Amino acid sequence: MTEDQKAALLRPGLFAVKPTGIKVSFEFFPPNTEKMEQTLWNSIRKLEPLQPEMVSVTYGAGGSTRERTYAAVSRILKETSLTPAAHLTCVAASRDEVDEILRKYWDEGIRHIVALRGDMPTVGQAYYPHPRGYKNAADLVAGAKRIGDFDISVAAYPEHHPESGSAQADIDNLKRKVDAGASRAITQYFFNVEHYFRFMDKVLAAGISVPIVPGILPVTNFATAKKFSQASGVEVPDWLHDLFDGLEDRPECRQQVAATVAAEQCLRLYQGGVKHFHIYTLNRAELTLALCHILGIRPQTNVGDGEKNDRTQRAS
Fold first, then answer.
1. pLDDT in the model for residue 122
2. Model-level pTM?
3. Is 108 a catalytic residue?
4. Residue ranges in the chain assigned as alpha helix (H)
Protein backbone atom coordinates (compact mmCIF):
# COMPACT_ATOMS: atom_id res chain seq x y z
CA MET A 1 0.00 0.00 0.00
CA THR A 2 1.36 3.41 -0.98
CA GLU A 3 1.62 6.35 1.41
CA ASP A 4 -1.13 8.14 -0.51
CA GLN A 5 -3.41 5.14 -0.12
CA LYS A 6 -2.68 4.98 3.62
CA ALA A 7 -3.44 8.70 3.93
CA ALA A 8 -6.71 8.21 2.05
CA LEU A 9 -7.77 5.51 4.51
CA LEU A 10 -7.05 7.78 7.47
CA ARG A 11 -8.79 10.81 5.99
CA PRO A 12 -12.30 11.27 7.49
CA GLY A 13 -15.15 10.63 5.07
CA LEU A 14 -17.52 13.34 3.92
CA PHE A 15 -20.21 12.21 6.36
CA ALA A 16 -17.77 11.51 9.22
CA VAL A 17 -17.33 15.15 10.26
CA LYS A 18 -20.39 16.45 12.08
CA PRO A 19 -21.39 19.85 10.64
CA THR A 20 -21.99 22.66 13.13
CA GLY A 21 -23.52 26.11 12.90
CA ILE A 22 -25.56 25.37 9.81
CA LYS A 23 -28.63 27.50 9.02
CA VAL A 24 -31.33 26.77 6.47
CA SER A 25 -34.20 28.58 4.82
CA PHE A 26 -36.99 26.99 2.79
CA GLU A 27 -38.88 27.94 -0.34
CA PHE A 28 -42.51 27.05 -1.07
CA PHE A 29 -44.85 27.89 -3.93
CA PRO A 30 -48.49 28.98 -3.50
CA PRO A 31 -51.06 26.23 -4.18
CA ASN A 32 -53.74 26.47 -6.86
CA THR A 33 -55.97 23.57 -5.81
CA GLU A 34 -57.41 22.37 -2.52
CA LYS A 35 -55.27 19.23 -2.66
CA MET A 36 -52.12 21.27 -3.23
CA GLU A 37 -53.16 23.53 -0.35
CA GLN A 38 -53.26 20.50 1.93
CA THR A 39 -49.88 19.32 0.66
CA LEU A 40 -48.34 22.74 1.29
CA TRP A 41 -49.63 23.03 4.83
CA ASN A 42 -48.74 19.46 5.70
CA SER A 43 -45.20 20.28 4.59
CA ILE A 44 -45.10 23.55 6.50
CA ARG A 45 -46.23 21.83 9.70
CA LYS A 46 -43.66 19.07 9.30
CA LEU A 47 -40.83 21.51 8.62
CA GLU A 48 -41.79 24.15 11.19
CA PRO A 49 -40.03 22.38 14.11
CA LEU A 50 -36.72 22.75 12.25
CA GLN A 51 -37.03 26.54 12.78
CA PRO A 52 -35.44 27.77 9.54
CA GLU A 53 -34.12 31.32 9.26
CA MET A 54 -37.07 32.17 7.04
CA VAL A 55 -39.45 30.59 4.54
CA SER A 56 -40.17 32.23 1.21
CA VAL A 57 -43.23 31.93 -1.01
CA THR A 58 -42.75 32.30 -4.75
CA TYR A 59 -44.53 34.60 -7.18
CA GLY A 60 -45.73 33.19 -10.50
CA ALA A 61 -44.68 34.43 -13.94
CA GLY A 62 -46.34 37.73 -14.77
CA GLY A 63 -47.59 38.09 -11.20
CA SER A 64 -50.01 35.24 -11.79
CA THR A 65 -50.03 34.09 -8.16
CA ARG A 66 -50.16 37.51 -6.50
CA GLU A 67 -53.19 36.86 -4.29
CA ARG A 68 -52.19 33.27 -3.51
CA THR A 69 -48.69 34.35 -2.56
CA TYR A 70 -50.10 37.00 -0.23
CA ALA A 71 -52.57 34.54 1.30
CA ALA A 72 -49.85 31.95 1.98
CA VAL A 73 -47.40 34.47 3.46
CA SER A 74 -50.10 36.05 5.62
CA ARG A 75 -51.23 32.68 6.97
CA ILE A 76 -47.66 31.60 7.73
CA LEU A 77 -47.16 34.82 9.70
CA LYS A 78 -50.39 34.40 11.68
CA GLU A 79 -50.51 30.65 12.27
CA THR A 80 -46.91 29.48 12.62
CA SER A 81 -43.68 30.34 14.40
CA LEU A 82 -41.94 30.83 11.05
CA THR A 83 -40.64 34.05 9.51
CA PRO A 84 -42.19 34.41 6.03
CA ALA A 85 -40.66 36.19 3.05
CA ALA A 86 -42.81 37.22 0.10
CA HIS A 87 -41.47 37.03 -3.44
CA LEU A 88 -42.27 40.10 -5.53
CA THR A 89 -41.50 40.91 -9.17
CA CYS A 90 -41.57 43.85 -11.57
CA VAL A 91 -43.64 42.12 -14.25
CA ALA A 92 -47.16 43.14 -15.33
CA ALA A 93 -47.67 45.71 -12.58
CA SER A 94 -47.20 49.45 -12.27
CA ARG A 95 -44.99 51.01 -9.64
CA ASP A 96 -48.11 52.14 -7.75
CA GLU A 97 -49.51 48.60 -7.74
CA VAL A 98 -46.27 47.11 -6.46
CA ASP A 99 -45.95 49.84 -3.83
CA GLU A 100 -49.48 49.05 -2.64
CA ILE A 101 -48.51 45.39 -2.18
CA LEU A 102 -45.37 46.41 -0.28
CA ARG A 103 -47.34 48.69 2.04
CA LYS A 104 -49.85 45.91 2.63
CA TYR A 105 -47.04 43.53 3.61
CA TRP A 106 -45.43 46.13 5.86
CA ASP A 107 -48.70 46.98 7.62
CA GLU A 108 -49.32 43.29 8.27
CA GLY A 109 -45.91 42.84 9.88
CA ILE A 110 -44.15 41.07 7.02
CA ARG A 111 -40.60 42.38 6.94
CA HIS A 112 -38.86 40.03 4.49
CA ILE A 113 -39.09 40.39 0.71
CA VAL A 114 -37.44 38.44 -2.12
CA ALA A 115 -37.16 41.06 -4.87
CA LEU A 116 -36.91 39.69 -8.41
CA ARG A 117 -37.17 41.01 -11.93
CA GLY A 118 -39.52 38.14 -12.75
CA ASP A 119 -40.51 36.22 -15.88
CA MET A 120 -42.98 37.22 -18.53
CA PRO A 121 -46.39 35.46 -18.62
CA THR A 122 -45.60 33.70 -21.91
CA VAL A 123 -42.78 31.14 -21.87
CA GLY A 124 -39.87 32.34 -24.00
CA GLN A 125 -41.18 35.89 -24.21
CA ALA A 126 -38.45 38.53 -23.96
CA TYR A 127 -38.59 40.61 -20.80
CA TYR A 128 -39.75 44.17 -20.93
CA PRO A 129 -40.76 46.31 -17.95
CA HIS A 130 -44.25 47.68 -17.36
CA PRO A 131 -44.33 51.21 -18.87
CA ARG A 132 -45.14 52.67 -15.44
CA GLY A 133 -43.41 50.01 -13.38
CA TYR A 134 -40.09 49.17 -11.82
CA LYS A 135 -37.63 48.45 -14.59
CA ASN A 136 -35.55 45.73 -12.91
CA ALA A 137 -34.76 44.08 -9.57
CA ALA A 138 -32.35 46.80 -8.45
CA ASP A 139 -35.04 49.39 -9.07
CA LEU A 140 -37.52 47.27 -7.11
CA VAL A 141 -35.12 46.93 -4.17
CA ALA A 142 -34.70 50.70 -4.01
CA GLY A 143 -38.47 51.16 -4.20
CA ALA A 144 -39.11 48.67 -1.41
CA LYS A 145 -36.58 50.42 0.81
CA ARG A 146 -38.49 53.68 0.33
CA ILE A 147 -41.66 51.96 1.58
CA GLY A 148 -40.06 50.40 4.68
CA ASP A 149 -36.85 48.98 6.04
CA PHE A 150 -37.46 45.52 4.58
CA ASP A 151 -34.91 42.72 4.85
CA ILE A 152 -34.50 42.06 1.12
CA SER A 153 -33.10 39.01 -0.65
CA VAL A 154 -32.29 39.02 -4.36
CA ALA A 155 -31.29 36.41 -6.93
CA ALA A 156 -27.78 35.41 -8.00
CA TYR A 157 -26.67 33.12 -10.81
CA PRO A 158 -23.49 31.05 -10.39
CA GLU A 159 -23.73 29.86 -14.03
CA HIS A 160 -25.03 33.26 -15.17
CA HIS A 161 -28.56 34.13 -16.18
CA PRO A 162 -29.49 32.82 -19.66
CA GLU A 163 -30.57 36.31 -20.74
CA SER A 164 -27.45 38.11 -19.55
CA GLY A 165 -24.64 38.90 -21.90
CA SER A 166 -21.89 37.43 -19.74
CA ALA A 167 -20.97 36.23 -16.29
CA GLN A 168 -19.53 39.66 -15.56
CA ALA A 169 -22.84 41.25 -16.48
CA ASP A 170 -24.46 39.11 -13.79
CA ILE A 171 -21.90 40.26 -11.23
CA ASP A 172 -22.48 43.90 -12.19
CA ASN A 173 -26.24 43.44 -11.87
CA LEU A 174 -25.88 41.76 -8.48
CA LYS A 175 -23.76 44.67 -7.25
CA ARG A 176 -26.45 47.13 -8.35
CA LYS A 177 -29.03 45.20 -6.34
CA VAL A 178 -26.81 45.12 -3.26
CA ASP A 179 -25.99 48.82 -3.59
CA ALA A 180 -29.74 49.51 -3.76
CA GLY A 181 -30.23 47.87 -0.36
CA ALA A 182 -30.39 44.07 -0.68
CA SER A 183 -29.36 42.20 2.48
CA ARG A 184 -28.36 38.92 0.82
CA ALA A 185 -28.55 36.99 -2.43
CA ILE A 186 -29.99 33.51 -2.94
CA THR A 187 -28.56 31.61 -5.88
CA GLN A 188 -30.26 29.72 -8.64
CA TYR A 189 -29.84 26.04 -7.88
CA PHE A 190 -26.77 24.28 -9.25
CA PHE A 191 -25.33 20.76 -9.06
CA ASN A 192 -21.61 21.37 -9.51
CA VAL A 193 -20.20 23.03 -6.37
CA GLU A 194 -17.25 24.38 -8.35
CA HIS A 195 -19.62 26.80 -10.07
CA TYR A 196 -20.54 28.31 -6.71
CA PHE A 197 -16.95 28.70 -5.53
CA ARG A 198 -15.80 30.24 -8.83
CA PHE A 199 -18.78 32.59 -8.66
CA MET A 200 -17.85 33.60 -5.11
CA ASP A 201 -14.35 34.49 -6.27
CA LYS A 202 -15.91 36.99 -8.70
CA VAL A 203 -18.37 38.25 -6.08
CA LEU A 204 -15.61 39.02 -3.59
CA ALA A 205 -13.43 40.58 -6.28
CA ALA A 206 -16.31 42.94 -7.08
CA GLY A 207 -16.46 44.10 -3.48
CA ILE A 208 -19.82 42.46 -2.76
CA SER A 209 -19.90 41.55 0.93
CA VAL A 210 -23.49 40.42 1.62
CA PRO A 211 -24.12 36.69 2.18
CA ILE A 212 -24.58 34.65 -1.01
CA VAL A 213 -26.78 31.75 0.05
CA PRO A 214 -26.60 28.69 -2.23
CA GLY A 215 -29.95 27.43 -3.47
CA ILE A 216 -30.23 23.64 -3.11
CA LEU A 217 -32.67 21.60 -5.19
CA PRO A 218 -33.18 17.98 -4.10
CA VAL A 219 -34.19 16.31 -7.36
CA THR A 220 -37.56 14.57 -7.12
CA ASN A 221 -38.11 14.13 -10.85
CA PHE A 222 -34.94 14.00 -12.94
CA ALA A 223 -36.65 14.50 -16.32
CA THR A 224 -38.41 17.64 -15.11
CA ALA A 225 -35.27 18.95 -13.43
CA LYS A 226 -33.25 18.40 -16.60
CA LYS A 227 -35.80 20.19 -18.77
CA PHE A 228 -35.97 23.17 -16.43
CA SER A 229 -32.18 23.24 -16.09
CA GLN A 230 -31.71 23.43 -19.84
CA ALA A 231 -34.03 26.44 -19.98
CA SER A 232 -32.29 28.06 -17.02
CA GLY A 233 -28.70 27.55 -18.08
CA VAL A 234 -27.91 25.09 -15.27
CA GLU A 235 -25.39 22.35 -16.02
CA VAL A 236 -26.68 18.83 -15.40
CA PRO A 237 -23.55 16.67 -14.92
CA ASP A 238 -23.31 13.24 -16.54
CA TRP A 239 -22.85 11.64 -13.14
CA LEU A 240 -26.26 12.96 -12.04
CA HIS A 241 -27.88 11.47 -15.13
CA ASP A 242 -26.22 8.13 -14.37
CA LEU A 243 -27.44 8.13 -10.77
CA PHE A 244 -31.08 8.60 -11.76
CA ASP A 245 -30.97 6.35 -14.83
CA GLY A 246 -33.50 3.54 -14.51
CA LEU A 247 -35.35 5.04 -11.52
CA GLU A 248 -38.29 6.50 -13.44
CA ASP A 249 -40.71 3.97 -11.93
CA ARG A 250 -38.98 3.59 -8.58
CA PRO A 251 -39.97 6.70 -6.58
CA GLU A 252 -38.76 5.47 -3.19
CA CYS A 253 -35.29 4.68 -4.50
CA ARG A 254 -35.27 7.96 -6.37
CA GLN A 255 -35.98 9.84 -3.12
CA GLN A 256 -33.07 8.12 -1.37
CA VAL A 257 -30.70 9.00 -4.19
CA ALA A 258 -31.97 12.59 -4.22
CA ALA A 259 -31.39 13.04 -0.48
CA THR A 260 -27.88 11.60 -0.72
CA VAL A 261 -26.92 13.82 -3.67
CA ALA A 262 -28.25 16.98 -2.01
CA ALA A 263 -26.54 16.12 1.28
CA GLU A 264 -23.20 15.52 -0.41
CA GLN A 265 -23.53 18.83 -2.25
CA CYS A 266 -24.23 20.70 1.00
CA LEU A 267 -21.38 19.00 2.85
CA ARG A 268 -18.90 19.84 0.09
CA LEU A 269 -20.07 23.44 0.26
CA TYR A 270 -19.74 23.27 4.05
CA GLN A 271 -16.13 22.11 3.66
CA GLY A 272 -15.60 25.30 1.68
CA GLY A 273 -16.99 27.46 4.48
CA VAL A 274 -20.68 27.66 3.58
CA LYS A 275 -23.07 27.45 6.53
CA HIS A 276 -26.41 28.68 5.17
CA PHE A 277 -28.47 26.81 2.59
CA HIS A 278 -31.75 27.80 0.91
CA ILE A 279 -33.67 24.64 0.10
CA TYR A 280 -36.21 24.52 -2.73
CA THR A 281 -38.75 22.21 -1.10
CA LEU A 282 -41.21 21.92 -4.02
CA ASN A 283 -43.81 21.84 -1.20
CA ARG A 284 -42.65 18.35 -0.19
CA ALA A 285 -41.32 17.84 3.30
CA GLU A 286 -39.70 14.41 3.37
CA LEU A 287 -36.62 15.14 1.24
CA THR A 288 -36.01 18.38 3.11
CA LEU A 289 -36.36 16.62 6.46
CA ALA A 290 -33.85 13.96 5.41
CA LEU A 291 -31.39 16.56 4.13
CA CYS A 292 -31.64 18.67 7.28
CA HIS A 293 -31.18 15.59 9.47
CA ILE A 294 -27.90 14.79 7.71
CA LEU A 295 -26.83 18.43 8.16
CA GLY A 296 -27.44 18.15 11.91
CA ILE A 297 -30.62 20.21 12.00
CA ARG A 298 -33.15 18.46 14.21
CA PRO A 299 -36.69 19.43 15.30
CA GLN A 300 -37.04 21.94 18.10
CA THR A 301 -39.93 21.17 20.42
CA ASN A 302 -40.11 24.40 22.42
CA VAL A 303 -41.59 26.66 19.75
CA GLY A 304 -45.15 27.78 20.36
CA ASP A 305 -47.74 30.39 19.47
CA GLY A 306 -46.62 32.65 22.31
CA GLU A 307 -43.16 33.00 20.82
CA LYS A 308 -44.62 33.77 17.42
CA ASN A 309 -46.98 36.39 18.82
CA ASP A 310 -44.14 38.12 20.66
CA ARG A 311 -42.03 38.14 17.50
CA THR A 312 -44.89 39.54 15.41
CA GLN A 313 -45.47 42.34 17.91
CA ARG A 314 -41.79 43.30 17.88
CA ALA A 315 -41.90 43.51 14.06
CA SER A 316 -44.92 45.82 14.09
1. 62
2. 0.89
3. no
4. 3-10, 34-47, 66-79, 95-108, 137-147, 167-179, 193-205, 222-232, 238-244, 251-271, 285-294, 305-315
CB 81 within 8 A of CB 48: yes
Tell me the C-alpha distance between 140 and 94, whole Å.
11
Three-state SS at 24: strand
Domains of the chain, by residue range, sit at: 18-307
How many angstroms from the chain centroid is the CA of residue 191? 14
Rounded CA separation 274/218 (Å): 18
- Alpha-carbon distances, residue 273 vs 153, 196, 200, 268, 292 (angstroms): 20, 12, 11, 9, 17
Residue 18 C-beta-side C-alpha neighbours within 13 Å: 4
Q: Which amino acid is at 42?
A: N
Q: Which of 27, 97, 235, 307 is catalytic?
A: 27
Average pLDDT, the chain: 89
Task: Give dist(CA 75, CA 234) in Å, integer.
Answer: 33
| pLDDT at residue 14 greater than cutoff 90 | no
**CATH fit for domain 18-307, picks 2.60.120.650, 3.20.20.220, 3.40.50.300, 3.40.50.1820:** 3.20.20.220
Helix axis angle, 193-205 relative to 167-179, nearest 10°?
A: 60
Residue 231 has pLDDT above 90, yes or no: no
pLDDT at 63: 56
* pLDDT tens string 174-206: 999 999 999 999 999 999 999 999 999 999 999
